[in-house]
Amino acid sequence: MSASAVPKITAVPARLPRIGCFARQAGKATSSATGSGATAITAIQTQLNPSVTGQFSISAAPSATLQSARAHMSADKSANSGASSISLADEDRVRQVLVDSVLGLWDVVNNLTRLKPSHRDRYRVTIFGSARVQPGSFGYEETKRAAAALADMDCDIITGGGPGLMQAANEGAKSSNRGHSVGIRVELPFEQDVNAFVTEAFEHRTFFTRLHQFVLQSDAFIVAPGGIGTVLEMTLIWQLLQVNHLENTPLILVGSMWPGLVAWARESMLSITPPLANAADMDIPQCVANAGEALAIIHESHATWLKLRPARRS
To answer: What is the pTM of this model?
Structure first.
């Protein structure tokens, strides 16, 4: 990768990477100060969802667990209002302070992620797949072709930012010159470098926050052949669709390896009493034989998305 192509850090909160991510993008690093609560929220949501219209809606109220945690912290604060400090030798109280602080951080994060963009400016497709597939192979070239076709439809492409099929998708997106090529990475003892075709990169220290960002940013998911990591990503999206935390979001499984997995789930989960899932849950993933069939599904979903998109202000 040439020096000019190396993504640079932009808008990085000083110490937030430990609970979230930091962003990098090709070009000049930028930063800005926020002058109001509304501006701060917009800045945070732009970091989570870089391509939004600026209109936000608030999702359902916080869970009962978080409400209970808040009540517990409030009661604990009242009970300890007379004590301005806690000795590190008091292990029980120190442990409780740490627990309460972590719960409080999760409360803040969960409240911020309730703020959803009413509509993004661009349709975004995440492509999951193996890091081990080599350039020049059929799977690599087919993934690259599919990503280029999606970019030609004015879709942005999101991947894990690594090698293999992730690189193939980013390469296809970049070759089109019409779609953004995004990579969402995670710290690993290997595969550290973002691939050369990513123009905007996000890096996480945990798989948990990384997966959350995939969910926040994507309008559709294509799952190419892959290993355990790809299965993890696919089953997370499947489960979120099952419980309606994601809606109207295609989950498309491409290739011969996936129908057997779905058939196993159907047989194993529905054949006992009581069933471990609903029959309709098994219809959530759409298994297709090739990239062409996946593109047809995305094309239909994208057309519906365009019809629902608010008219742009002149």
So the answer is: 0.73
Kindly list the distances between the CA atom of residue 265 and the CA atoms of 59, 76, 129, 199, 275, in Å, as whole numbers in the listed order: 31, 45, 20, 37, 11
Q: Residues 286-314: what's their mean pLDDT?
A: 90
User: In sequence order, what DSSP letters do the residues of 96-119 get, joined into one string?
Assistant: HHHHHHHHHHHHHHHHHTTEEES-
How far is the C-alpha of 166 from the C-alpha of 241, rounded, in Å? 23
236: left (phi over 0), alpha (psi -120 to 50) or beta: alpha
Residues 6+ apart with CB under 8 A from 305: 123, 219
Predicted pLDDT of residue 142: 97
Last residue of a domain, one of 90, 113, 136: 113
Q: Which residue has the tokens 């499984």?
A: 253
Residues 148 and 296 in one domain: yes
| Per-residue DSSP letter, 48 | H
Listed residue (301, 289, 282, 207) closest to 253, CA to CA: 289
Angle at 18 between CA 12 and CA 24, to 5 degrees: 30
17 or 134: which carries more pLDDT confidence? 134
Report which DSSP code applies to 83.
Answer: -
Number of domains comprising the chain: 3
The Cβ of residue 13 has, within 10 Å, a number of other Cβ atoms equal to 13
pLDDT tens digits, one per residue of 139-164? 999 999 999 999 999 999 999 999 99
In a domain? residue 313: no
| pLDDT higher than threshold 90 for residue 192 | no
Summarised one tens digit per residue, pLDDT across range 249-264 is 999 999 999 999 999 9
